[in-house]
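Quick start: what a row looks like.
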Amino acid sequence: MCWSKLTSQKNACRKAKILLILGVFFNAHLYKDTVMFSRILNAIFLPLRIICSHEFVNKLGLRSLRDERCDKVMEHCRGRLLDIGCGNNQLVRKYGHDSVGVDVYDFGGGAIIVQDTSKLPFDDGSFDTVSFVASLNHIPNRHEVLTEVLRILSENGRIVLTMISPFIGTLRHKLAWWDKDQDERGLKKGEELGLSHEYIVSLAENKGFRLVKKKRIMCCLNNIYVFEKRHEKCSEAN
């Protein structure tokens, strides 16, 4: 009697393990299918995601380009982050790590408002990553700003920036009828609708950075760049 009970308990235990393994397996496949379906859906409705506001797109159950861009940037951030031209401070609030967002306009979100992003109130080597999320083209004095970034970055610090081409920028700004910032603030002298790959690389290299990664994102409409400080090796003459 005891032996039969023990055997039945073992069998029940085996069945439970098998069911658990099967459950994990099917749930993993269901998750993969869900993720794949979401990607396909967002690709199909890409035109809608471009011309409609981020809030409206999210209400439809789609992923806004702003949220997608934010996640792509976070993949390359490390340590303490400073987001320059942070807008509503979404990246900093989502990333954490005692990070800071600065902007010359107050879009809400708890950003530090400064008069000039080339004169920042931070000590040397205060940050491990500095990001420019769709903002470098809106900074007229970007040469001076990158000099300041070199100062506040740690020894092995990096820049992570996203940028659209001038053509995509022109097209996007014409389609984004919902963007109040375009109408209220407009473009100042020195601001651009987008920056070319050659210009970005040349600018960063001239300021002491080297390109370590460049990738197309968001259905190839946008680009993400990662630059790191360039450390010159000084060799002594024999």
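That is the whole record. Residues 143 and 203 are 7 Å apart (CA to CA). The first helix runs from residue 2 to 44.
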